[in-house]
Write a structure and sequence with these properties.
The protein has about 575 residues and is mostly helical. The protein is built from 23 helices and seven strands.
Amino acid sequence: MAFDRPYVYYPDEYAIVKPALDMVATGDPDPHTFTYPSFLIYAETGIVQVVHAVTGAPLTTPAQVWFGGLPGSGPSDLAQDLYQYDLWGRRLVGLLGVLTVLLLAFAGRVAALSLRRRKVSSTATREQPEATRAEPDGARSAAPENGEAGGTPRGPSMSAWDREVGWLAGLVGAGFYALAVLPLDYSRFLTTDIPSAFFTAATLIAAVAAVSRPPDRTSNRFLILSGLFAGMAASTKYNAAVVAIVPAIAYLSRAGSLQAIPTWLRGAVRSRTPYLTALAAVVAFVVITPMIIFDTGAVINDLTGVIFHYNVQGHPGAQGDTIGYYVNYLWTTGFGPVLSVLALAGIVWALVRHRASDLVLVVFPIVYFLMVSIPEVHFERDLMPMVPFLALLAGRFVADAAATVYELIGRRRRFLGAVAATVLIALVAVQPAAAAVQDARVTRLPRTETIARNWVYGHLMSGSAIVREEYTPQLDPYSYRVGYTWTLSTYDLAWYRSHGFRYAIASSRLYDRYFAPGYPTEAAFYNELFSLPVVYEIQPSSTVTGPTIIILDLQPGLAAQQARSP
């Protein structure tokens, strides 16, 4: 996780670290920034308090040093002394990623254990008085047939939610989640994405536990717990609030069928359970993001800014054809072709089966994907809240397929059936495992930013005037006269020269986006910039990772004069 030590190169982590540092330094419980909800900021605040108490590391960044009309550092830059705060926050995120894997591994067993308690007819009879006390008559679950929403399997079943196969579905889904590149990548950053996936997974597990039981008091408590986790998911990442449909669907599944819902609702609205579930979600969100009450204007302002950014303002390099971008990313990188096909097959299989547990599992990723595909702006990490669901859908499909193989081959020879089922699971895991290993290998490679920064310190004279853009090496403004701007195309070359800058540092992670259609001014600037002499350039390769970093001489004539001087 310390791949970029001693500087943080991922640009969004500052939005978590800096408010936490300010709150500990000032004692003010208000983070004063609500681009993200407050769960991770408050968690990082606790980390900052502990690390500061143990190490005595500073809580504030050095005073800003200006040169040539520009600040010496950008908003996402963190001083070396503050790196350990970010690193421990990353470790918390990584821990939540591991816990998500454990939750998914437990998912199938949650339903299987509950199904064991339901003896079909006899159990339903015994539970009826308790269900009556827990719900009004109209809210009582209809008696669906096997295979319908809310139904209980009769006799032997190879469903992935049944006993042994339930364990297999959870374990395979957990394995797929652990191997997918998307959660692997973001488990290394102090961002809200992995924590939001943890809480959406917890919401799912509680809802599955609820639908796997008769509608009794225990089932109601699981529904309320699911609502609580949904509120916590929303307090981690705003768009994760959509997961609140999971406990809602779990409750609606008690009707037994779609046709029975209108009649069933007339009694269901008199039950306390849906209101307590919604209240639990609201309370969880407000408790974890309390400034929604005490600093409402700031919350609304920042949330409005996020909506404006995604839908109106846009983001160069991350906008247009959102659905196509997400599908292509999942297919080529985030999930890979094998997991993508398995997840899609799992969605179809769940819709075909349409049991209560299927509906609880399948509706959220469909609705969520459609919602995040509406805005013009797209970031792959916005897909994270639905990834646990996709992993379980894929895992359950594979588990059912393996169980079918075992049943067909193992009728006569159980050992051969077990071997065939194991081989099937191993085969579908090969490509995801290879992608995960390659991703881990690339992450451990030296970074271009670090190599370029070391080159600057070793080759450019101390005190040289350097202007840099985002995604470039962070330089010490006390060793060099540094100016920062988000993109070098903010000003023309004459402006930089007139303000005393000698060198410019550009990053492909920024300038590449302006060579796309729609940015003629920026593209023309970079073309002019890249016509200047290149002082140093490093590109990613099989031994180096990161963006291409280019250092250019803004005043080549000055270099010629210095060369002629005795």
